[in-house]
Amino acid sequence: MKQYVNNIYFGLKSLVVGLVVTFKAMIQPVVTVQYPREEIDITPNYRGHIELVPNPETGESSCIICGMCAKECPSECITVKSEKSGDGKTKVLSLFVQDFTKCSLCGLCVENCPKGAIQFSDEYDLAGFTKEMFHFDLIKRLKERQ
Amino acid sequence: MEMFNFLPPELIRMIIFVALLIGLVFLNALVMVYLERKIAGHIQRRLGPMEVGPHGIFQTLIDGIKLIGKQLIIPRDVNRPLFRLAPLLAFTPVVLPFVVIPFSQKIQARDLNLGLVFIIAMSAINVLAIFVAGWSSNNKYSLFGAMRSVAQNIAFEIPILLSVLSVVLMTNTFSMQGIVTAQSNIWFIIVQPVAFLIYFIACIAETNRAPFDLPEAESELTAGFHTEYSGMGFGLFFLGEYGNMFVVCSIATVLFLGGWHGFTLPFNDYGAIIWFMFKVYFLLFLMIQIRWTYPRVRFDQLMNLAWKYLIPISLVNVLITAVIVKL
Ligand code: SF4
Ligand code: SF4
User: What mean pLDDT is predicted for residues B310-315?
Assistant: First the structure.
C-alpha cells in the first residue's frame, strides 16, 4: 500500500516537473535561424570547395604552379595548367579547375601547397542542375572576388 | 425573413445550429492543427510553420486543400464497403455531441435531459470506427492499431464514466445546462479534484493522444489504423480526432470548470461563450503540451495505469461522494 501511494505521488510529481520543463522551453527565445531570410556566420573550420588565396600585396594568386595539389589529390579532381608569359621567361597560371563532384574535402591539397595558395571557401548553399556546374574555375573566382 | 415563415421556427433554428456546429468542427481542426504545430515548435525552441501567410496562419488551410485534392486510393484486397464507411463513421459521431454542448446560457442547440449520456454514447462510436478501419484495411499494422485502440478504450471508458458519475451524483441531473447551473457558486474542480484529474487523464487516452497514442504509434505501426488511408479519408480521421478533443475538453469544462460561468460579460446570455471557449482552449493547450512533453507509454504500462490506478481510485471517489451526498 505504501508503495502504491508512493508511486502515485512520485508519478504525479514527475509529470508536473516535465510540464514545467516544456513550458519554460516554450517561452524561451527560439534558437533556430530562418534560413533564406537570416544567415549566421560560418565557422572557420567549415570546408567548402577550395579557392585561391590572393596575395595580399599584388592581389594575384601566389600559386607557383608546382602541381603538388593536383598530384596529391586522392580523387584527382584538381587540374592546374600554365603557359609561358609574354616575355617567355616565366610561367603564368592559365587554368585552375576543381571538380567538386569528386572532392572528398580531405584537405590534402590545402595542407601540401608550398605557398599556402589555396584554402577552403565558405560556400555552403550550392545547388545546380548539371555536373558541370560544380567544376569550379578558381581563377575566375579569384578575379570575381576582387 | 418573410419567406421562411411557413417553416416551423424550431426547424430554422436547428438548421442554423447544424451549419454553425459543422463549421465549428472544421474551424476547430484548423486552429488546433496550427496551434499544435506552433506549440510543438516553440517547445522545441523553433518557430513552427512560418511560410504561408503571416506567421504561417494559412498553413493548415493549404494543407487541408492539398488533402482534398489528393486521390483516394483504395488498396486491392481491402473490404471495400467497410473501408469506405470507416472515415464517415469516425467523423459523424464527433459532430453530434456538439448539439448538447452549452456554449453559453442561450447558445445550445438542444438541452437534452440525458445530454451527458448522449455524448458518452456518441463518443463510443469512435472506437467502432477505428476498429472498422483497422479491420477492413487488411494490413497488419492497421489491425494491430485497431486492436490496441479497442483494448485501450474499454479500459479507459470505465474511469471516465466513474468520474462523470461522481459529478452527476452531486448535481442529480444529466442535462449539460443543469450541471453548469449547479456550479454557479463553486466549480466542481474544487470539490472533485480527483475526479477531474482522472477524467482528464482518461480522456487523453480515450482520444488516442500522446502519450497514449498506441493505436497510431508511428514508430511501431507506421500510422496504425489509418495506414492505408489517403486524401480526405485520412483527413476525416484527422478532423474526427481534433473534434473529439474539443468534445472531451468541453465536457471537462462543463463538469468541472463551471462551463460558461465567469465574470459577467456584456450580453452575458450569449457573451459567456467567450468564457467557455477560453476554458476549453486552455484544456486543449494543456493536452497539446502534454503531447510534446511525455514519451509514449508501453502497452502494459497503459493497462496498469487504467486497471491498477485510475479505476480503483475513481471507484473510491464515487463511493466517498455517494456517502457524502447521502448524509
Ligand atoms: S580536398 Fe582532397 S579531394 Fe578535395 S581537391 Fe583537395 S586533395 Fe582533392
Ligand atoms: S600546390 Fe599550391 S602552388 Fe602548387 S600548384 Fe597547387 S596551388 Fe599552386
Answer: 90
Q: Domain residues for A3?
A: 1-31
Residue A27: inside a domain: yes
| Beta strand ranges found along A1-146 (DSSP E) | 50-52, 78-84, 91-99, 118-120, 135-137
Are A64 and A6 within one domain? no
Residue A55 sits in the same domain as residue A7:
no
pLDDT at A92: 82
DSSP string covering B203-259: HHHHTT-TTS-GGG-HHHHTTGGGTT--HHHHHHHHHHHHHHHHHHHHHHHHHHS-T
CA of A49 to the centre of ligand 1 (A): 9
**Residue A127, Cβ density class (10 Å: 0-12 exposed, 13-18 middle, ≥19 buried):** exposed
Distance B45 CA to ligand 2 centre (A): 46
Q: What is the pLDDT of residue A20?
A: 92
Q: Give the up-direction half-sphere exposure of residue B159: CA atoms within 13 A in the CB hemisphere.
A: 29
- Ligand 2 closest atom vs CA A115: 3
Counting atoms of ligand 2 from 1, which one is nearest the CA of A78?
6
Is A40 a member of any domain? no
Does A96 map to a domain? yes
Interface confidence (ipTM) of the complex: 0.74
Answer whether A26 touches B (CB < 8 Å).
yes
Hey, what's the cell of B125?
462510436
Cell of B46: 523553433
Count of structural domains, chain A:
2
Amino acid at B228: E
Q: What is the CATH number of the domain that holds A76?
A: 3.30.70.3270
A17 touches chain B (CB under 8 A): no
* Nearest by CB: B289 against A22, A28, A31: A22
Where exactly are the structural domains of chain B? 2-326
The answer to whether the CB of B283 falls within 8 A of the CB of B241 is: no
Residue at A31: amino acid letter: V
Query: pTM of this prediction?
Result: 0.79
Claim to verify: residue A56 and residue A107 sit in the same structural domain? yes
* Partner-chain contact B294 A31, CB within 8 Å: no
Residue B1 has pLDDT above 60, yes or no: no
Share of chain B above pLDDT 90, in %: 1
Q: Are B116 and B284 in contact (CB under 8 A)?
A: no
Report, as ranges of residue numbers, the positions in chain A whose pLDDT lies below 70.
none
